[in-house]
């Protein structure tokens, strides 16, 4: 996984929310930033050390960052 962003927030789903993968594993379907932060916490990342706008940590695919509404 060298060179890949550890957290990927995929495109908004038709029903709302976005699938999140962390280090290549599906973490779940997030419906807001709080859900995403909870997935990161469960993966061992401290919220105090995380910026959801850090492009080296989080890659937002198929839509704007922090946009959770249905596609």
Describe this structure in words.
The protein has one helix and four strands. With 71 residues, it is an alpha+beta fold. The chain has a four-stranded mixed beta sheet, covered by helices on one side. 14% of the residues lie in helices and 28% in strands.
Based on the model shown, name its key terms.
71 residues, alpha+beta, 4-stranded mixed beta sheet, 4 strands, globular
Helix content: 10-25%
Supply the helix-strand structural class. Answer: alpha+beta
Q: Please give the alpha-carbon distance between the first and last residues.
A: 28 Å
Number of strands: 4
The largest sheet is: 4 strands, mixed
How many whole angstroms does the radius of gyration measure? Answer: 11 Å
Low-confidence stretches: none
**In what order do the strands lie side by side in the largest sheet?**
3-2-1-4
What's the helix and strand layout?
Elements: E1 7-12, E2 18-22, E3 25-30, H1 33-42, E4 58-60
Parallel strand pairs: 1-4
Antiparallel strand pairs: 1-2, 2-3
């Amino acid at each position: 996984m060298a060179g890949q962003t550890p957290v990927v927030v995929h495109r908004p789903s038709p029903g709302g929310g976005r699938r999140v993968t962390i280090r290549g594993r599906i973490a779940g379907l997030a419906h807001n930033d709080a859900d995403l932060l909870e997935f990161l916490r469960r993966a061992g990342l401290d919220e105090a050390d995380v910026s959801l706008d850090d492009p080296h940590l989080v890659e937002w695919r198929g839509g704007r960052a922090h946009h959770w509404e249905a596609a």
